[in-house]
Write a structure and sequence with these properties.
The complex is a heterodimer of chains A (about 250) and B (about 180). Chain A has about 250 residues and is of the alpha+beta class. Chain A has one domain (about 5-245): Alpha-Beta Plaits (2-Layer Sandwich), CATH 3.30.70.20. In chain A, about 20% of the residues lie in helices and about 15% in strands. In chain A, the strands form four sheets. Chain A has a four-stranded mixed β-sheet. In chain A, strands 2-3 form a two-stranded antiparallel ribbon. A two-stranded antiparallel ribbon of chain A has the order 4-5. In chain A, a hairpin with a 5-residue loop joins strand 4 (about 105) and strand 5. The radius of gyration of chain A is 19 Å and the shape is globular. Chain A starts with a helix and ends in a 7-residue tail after the last strand. Chain B is mostly helical and about 180 residues long. Chain B folds into two domains: about 1-40; about 50-75 and about 110-175, no CATH class. Helix content of chain B is about 50%, strand content about 0%. Chain B has helices at about 5-10, 15-35, 50-55, 60-65, 80-85, 95-105, 125-130, 135-140, 155-165, 175. In chain B, helix 5 crosses helix 6. Classes of the chains: A alpha+beta (about 250), B mainly alpha (about 180). The interface between A and B is medium-sized, with 21 and 14 residues.
Chain lengths: ~250, ~180
């Protein structure tokens, strides 16, 4: 009993999250985003996401860990289009983690909101609780036709029907970077050693990825930018994805 | 007044006998399955013996499993590596003739995997070897085996128990092993 109360004290202490080993964070500069969709394709390829096809898409069964949302503003001649790449925000106070009856999704010491596929029993509660709508449920078991299965990434599990999935910040690449750091007898991964697939593929370098606990990392500097904000900040989910506002001309 | 147990069951003699036979049969079947057909010790396409190579002829593990300290998987040697020695050694033995056939056909030997963790698990040999764990801790006395037998369960408690004992950093975090 004393153990449990100690744990509760530790976890509710203010600033607990600053004590994480790492605090993986992504920054997305909306002023640089052109909405090209390279990140979406890169994510699809890296993480063994199925192509669901037109019919399933219409039934809203699409699988995309990263999607580009479009916002139209104004009337026809003065029409403006804005893009917002939306992926799992890896919230520090994630609404999706608490309701899982089997604790298949939890927060790890690196500030990642993880999903353990084989623990998941598919209640879909987490998806309901997620305000960003970035959790995707496998309604079907998808297969890859003959030569295509060769391009599956062996470092990522191929999910089956009945499992919830979402962006992992390419945890397999984080794992590899840590492995390399251990080989070089370093305790920590250097800034820039981990690049998720979407960040790597971004042509305009709108996305940055790194450790927020390291004050000299690129992301840390980005988050101090005046334009930085979180999506749905008022919900107090403390997302790990930081957006930088689009610069607009005001007349 | 007393009831004799013998009298009570004597009228059910045949069903009871049949029950005992069935249980006995299952037991024998299980033992046969366990010793001859279990996946702990499958019969390999070539009767390769670690005892002959490691104990009798003193060949190092790393000579054949060359990637064990460099990559996640240890790897099984190619036919070319076998032929490096067996072009000259024991060429008249039936097993080596079989080996030479694979070499002539330029085909890999279809070894049956003995140690296999499911695809959703990330296991890496490199980290464990670099941490100084002996092969025998996990694989048992391979050097005495005429046929490879799996001695560890390779189930999750087996991994996590050792990680807890050795206090591996983040060794109990699910995404360390689950991908």
């Amino acid at each position: 009993m004393a153990k449990i109360t100690d744990k509760i004290k530790e976890y509710t202490r203010p600033g607990y999250y600053e004590k994480f080993d790492y605090h993986w964070t992504m920054s997305i500069d909306l002023d640089r985003c052109t909405g090209c969709g390279a990140c979406v394709v890169a994510c699809q390829a890296e993480n063994n996401l199925p192509i669901v096809g037109e019919k399933r898409f219409k039934e809203r069964r699409e699988m995309k860990w990263l999607r580009i949302e479009r916002y139209w503003e104004g009337e026809y001649p003065n029409l403006k289009l804005k893009f917002l790449p939306m992926l799992c925000q890896q919230c520090d106070q994630a609404p999706c983690e608490t309701p899982c009856p089997v604790a298949a999704t939890y927060h790890n010491q690196d500030g990642l909101n993880t999903q353990i596929y084989n623990r998941c029993i598919g209640t879909r509660t987490c998806a309901v609780y997620c305000p960003y709508e970035v959790r995707y449920f496998n309604w079907f078991t998808y297969t890859w036709d003959e030569p295509l299965e060769q391009q599956l990434n062996p470092d990522v599990t191929v999910r089956e029907k009945g499992v919830m999935e979402k962006c992992t910040f390419c945890v397999q690449r984080i794992r590899m970077a840590k492995d390399k750091a251990k080989d070089d007898n370093r305790r920590r991964v250097k800034d820039g050693e981990v690049t998720p697939a979407c960040v790597q593929s971004c042509a305009s370098e709108a996305m940055q990825f790194g450790d927020l606990n390291d004050p000299n990392s690129k992301v840390s500097k980005m988050t101090k930018n005046k334009r930085a904000y979180h999506v749905l900040e008022e919900l107090n989910t403390k997302p790990s994805v930081v957006y930088l506002q689009k610069v607009e001309k005001h007349d | 007044m007393s009831i004799s147990v013998g009298d009570a069951i004597s009228s059910f003699k045949i069903p009871i006998l049949m029950g005992v036979m069935v249980i006995f049969g299952f037991g024998i079947g299980y033992l046969i399955n366990y010793t001859f057909f279990s996946d702990r010790s499958p019969v390999q396409p070539i009767n390769f013996s670690h005892k002959i190579h490691v104990t009798d002829n003193n060949i190092q593990c790393m000579h054949c499993h060359a990637y064990v300290d460099k990559t996640p998987s240890a790897g099984v040697p190619s036919v070319k590596k076998c032929m490096g020695c067996h072009k000259a050694i024991a060429t008249d033995k039936p097993e080596i003739i079989k080996l030479t056939e694979y070499w002539d056909k330029q085909e890999p030997i279809p070894w049956i995997k003995v140690h296999d963790v499911p695809d959703f698990v990330y296991f890496t040999h490199k980290r464990h070897i670099k941490a100084g764990i002996e092969c025998q801790t996990c694989h048992g006395p391979i050097e005495t085996m005429a046929r490879v037998t799996r001695v560890s369960s390779l189930k999750m408690p087996w991994c996590v128990d050792c990680h807890t004992e050795k206090q591996v950093e983040n060794g109990r975090d699910c995404v360390t092993c689950h991908k």
